[in-house]
Amino acid sequence: MSQLNPASIPLSLYIHMPWCVRKCPYCDFNSHAVPDGQLSMDLEQQYLAALVADFETQVGMAQGRTIHSVFIGGGTPSLISAKGYQWLFDQLKGLLAFDENCEITLEANPGTVEHDPFKDYLAVGINRLSLGVQSFDSEHLQRLGRIHSANNALDAIQQARQAGFERVNVDLMHGLPQQSLEQALNDLKLAVEQGATHISWYQLTIEPNTVFFRTQPVLPQDEVLEEIQAQGEAYLKANGYINYEVSAWRKEKPSAHNLNYWQFGDYLAIGAGAHGKVTRPDGIYRFQKTRLPKDYLAKVPAEHGQMKRIEAEELPFEFMMNALRLNNGVNSEFYAQRTGLELNDLDATLKQLREKKLLIADVNRIACTEQGHIFLNSVLEAFL
Ligand SMILES: C[S@@+](CC[C@H](N)C(=O)[O-])C[C@H]1O[C@@H](n2cnc3c(N)ncnc32)[C@H](O)[C@@H]1O
Ligand code: SF4
């Protein structure tokens, strides 16, 4: 493994906000219901101060780099006030500069946006919103245990646009319990008509440790799921959206933050359960913060979680698992730059996948073919 040069790798920042008004029955993210559905100002301030203390311990990992993008995810980050974010950004920027055009995304739930108007979030520097809509159908929203109505979701997109957000992602799920093809397509149609500039379109998965896992809902038949996928993709394409990653569709720029993950960039991570990845000259490291908010608040940052080195033999798979999610793959040079390994060492595997017409890999680009994307899991197994 050759020496790595962190300065050549973009550095992002992930911030985790672990609370939600209530827990959705399909969700296995590190999110916890807040008592009374609202975060007290006390708890907000305590948590924001803990985030700053956590960040302070990570500044050294930047090794001279500035912050390329920020993603505030959850949980429900829109439970935190715009004023709280203003304070947080001031503190963080005092420790490490953000790039001039730093993309700052906030995940917002259409049921919590009345806490602060969107323009207040825009005013403090958040320049991209990601709205957790899931569906525009009232019955589906109810089955999903969502706290918002279809009208709240439509309003939220309108309000975001009117407030001046030029970049609005809408998260939608499909393959919902008892969902028909028409209903799934109608959800996409409404997101498009409302002017979503980016759509993250996920098929519902049933995750262990969720209510849906314990009490399985009736999901659409496989043939319906396939039709939803095929017709949904055709619809989005016909409406000018570009599919640049498995579930990501864009009309505007891609999400700089997610792109950095998929291109095997680095990211600091603050907040309960947050995962980070950083490159040092001697290797690549991952870390995860303690998951429960009460533990995160009680412990000093040094006790939040250990750094773990990614072993050289794990790196080909780790790199490809991210890079090959992108429809256009990645620049071939990124492999050596971001793993410290030589792409030539993978020659036999690349040749075999090329012969099966699953992969394109030359001096310029590593990417799956259309067929390769369909069989992504078996392509990735070749790198294990
Ligand atoms: C971390 S969640 C946060 C979004 C925000 N808390 C909300 O729900 O409004 C990000 C997105 O992942 C998707 N998601 C969550 N659980 C899922 C599941 N079991 N299957 C598919 N997509 C899921 C949803 O579309 C969700 O908006
Ligand atoms: S609002 Fe989002 S993060 Fe919270 S429980 Fe629901 S899906 Fe999970």
Automatic annotation (TrEMBL):
Q: What is its main location?
A: cytoplasm
Ranges of residues in domain Radical SAM core: 5-245
Alphabetized SMART domains for the sequence? Elp3
One annotated GO molecular function is:
coproporphyrinogen oxidase activity
> Which UniProt keywords are given for this protein, alphabetically ordered?
4Fe-4S, Chaperone, Cytoplasm, Heme, Iron, Iron-sulfur, Metal-binding, S-adenosyl-L-methionine
* Cellular component aspect of the GO annotation: cytoplasm
Q: Which domain of life is it from?
A: Bacteria
| Pfam family name, one | HemN_C
The record's Gene Ontology biological-process terms are: porphyrin-containing compound biosynthetic process
Subcellular location(s): the record lists:
Cytoplasm
What cofactor does this protein call for?
Answer: [4Fe-4S] cluster
What is the protein's known function? Probably acts as a heme chaperone, transferring heme to an unknown acceptor. Binds one molecule of heme per monomer, possibly covalently. Binds 1 [4Fe-4S] cluster. The cluster is coordinated with 3 cysteines and an exchangeable S-adenosyl-L-methionine.
Q: What does the similarity note say?
A: Belongs to the anaerobic coproporphyrinogen-III oxidase family. HemW subfamily.
For this protein, the record's NCBIfam families field holds: hemN_rel
Specify the protein name. Heme chaperone HemW
Q: Which organism is it from?
A: Acinetobacter beijerinckii CIP 110307
